[in-house]
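Researcher: Re-running this chain for the archive, since the previous output was lost when a drive failed. Same request as before.
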Amino acid sequence: MILITTPTGDIGSQLVRMLLDSADTALRVIARDPARIPAGLRDRIDVVTGSHYDPAVLDRALDGVDALFWNAAPNPAAATLDEVYAGAAATAAELLAAHGTGHVVTVSALGRGTSHQADAGLVTASLAMDDALSAAVPNFRALANASFMDNLLRQTAQLRDTGVFSGPMPAQSRQPTVATRDIAAAAARLLLDRAWTGSAEERLLGPEDLSPDEQAATVSAVLGRQVTYRQEPLESVETRFLGFGASPVFARGMAAMVRAKAEQGLDTGTPRTPAAATATPTTFHQWCEQVLKPALEHS
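Model: Regenerated structure tokens:
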């Protein structure tokens, strides 16, 4: 039995479909709102209603589970990062040990082993989460991801109406990005073929590094109209999240993560190898053609 958390999220929803398409696998999910799972999928999986942050819910869901996909699913309303990351993982670790679950795969971040991992906000919290989970099970993999290409979907309306997307990264700074579907595919591979042992990271970089200006040129080519990138001050990150109603702790954590990426090269410290393109093959151009363009056409 495989247990999936966040089955209606960007990664989890794709992972559920991949697992159901790939094998006759017993699949269970924890969902706050099972109605958000498409009916055609809901009939093929065991659904436990609730939050994986609720120990009673997680305890019930782990019964008979061999492998767990754990996604922290950032909570902007959280009063502390601990309740979402390391603290929640420590509680989960106790239950994993009690149930004898042998394999765990998490969604994590690049940055381990760098000089900036201790002051990188949500990344620091993610790495602490990994430590708590890896200590509880014999076999653990952290999917250490670059920033998501899919984050650009949050600016669909702005792109459609103004031809501009914005962010705090320097316009000429080349950074790795990865498509969420490639993250889901990596998780599916690990969950279906559990011959792997021990604890380790799998670093998912995407196939190329691009600057925001280069991304704008790609989006322009795909959409057939001019798109430009506008750099925003790093200080605007915390202010923007507070304006969205995020807690001060979460807003500061997001700002620290972005600063570590923009000023300290948090995501660029991992050497590129040919394996990166094999593990995460979706190029930004392909993602724009297959995901961004349809999203804009239907917005």
